[in-house]
Write a structure and sequence with these properties.
The chain has seven helices and six strands. Helix content is 47%, strand content 12%. The chain has one domain: Rossmann fold (3-Layer(aba) Sandwich). The two termini are 31 Å apart. By secondary structure, the protein is of the alpha/beta class. The protein has a six-stranded parallel sheet, with helices on both faces. Helix 3 links the parallel strand 2 and strand 3.
């Protein structure tokens, strides 16, 4: 009896962990997130991860015309945008200025940053989507904050050594989630 209670507890804990790591949706590209896509889901704001979601990791240059057009199209449609990144504040400030999108760096995702983004957007969690390329920062943090979560593939294979290791675990978890 004790063993079955422990087994049920473990099964319940695993189910809860899966739900926290499972993105609500997966897209092949950030650019699939259109005003129409957002409106169909009742979403009015977007919290974006920076590195390998919006721009390749460590890239420092001019944003692509496609990226600028995408950001401007969302803004024209009345969509509110905010960057939440674990990148250094200087890097975040650089891209924030280039894209005309406010944000916060050194956000310590998944635990912090998303609530700040919600406050800055002035929206409820049900009205905001978080888009990122990592399960254990972007998706987990977004789900913990009650946001709609979208996972996109990373823009580049260039990453921190730690992130490359975590990617292996992510691939396994994604297989388990189906």
């Amino acid at each position: 009896m004790l063993r079955s209670t422990a087994s049920r507890g473990l099964t319940s804990a695993l189910r809860a962990a899966k739900q926290r790591l499972k993105p609500k949706e997966r897209l092949e590209s950030l650019f699939q997130l259109t005003p129409e896509w957002l409106q169909a889901r009742g979403l009015k704001g977007v919290i974006l991860d920076l590195d390998n979601t919006v721009v390749p990791y460590k890239f420092r240059g001019e944003p692509t015309a496609e990226l600028v057009a995408w950001v401007e199209g969302l803004k024209r449609a009345g969509v509110k945008l905010f960057l939440v990144s674990n990148a250094r504040r200087k890097r975040l400030a650089y891209w924030s200025e280039k894209l005309g999108v406010a944000g916060t760096g050194l956000a310590f995702k998944p635990w912090f940053g998303f609530k700040k983004g919600l406050r800055r957007l002035g929206l409820s969690p049900q009205e905001v989507v978080v888009v990122g390329d990592q399960l254990f920062t972007d998706v987990l943090g977004g789900n913990l904050a009650g946001l709609h979560t979208v996972l996109v593939p990373p823009l580049s294979q260039r990453e921190l050594g730690y992130t490359r290791l975590v990617r292996r675990l992510e691939r396994w978890v994604l297989q388990q989630l189906g």
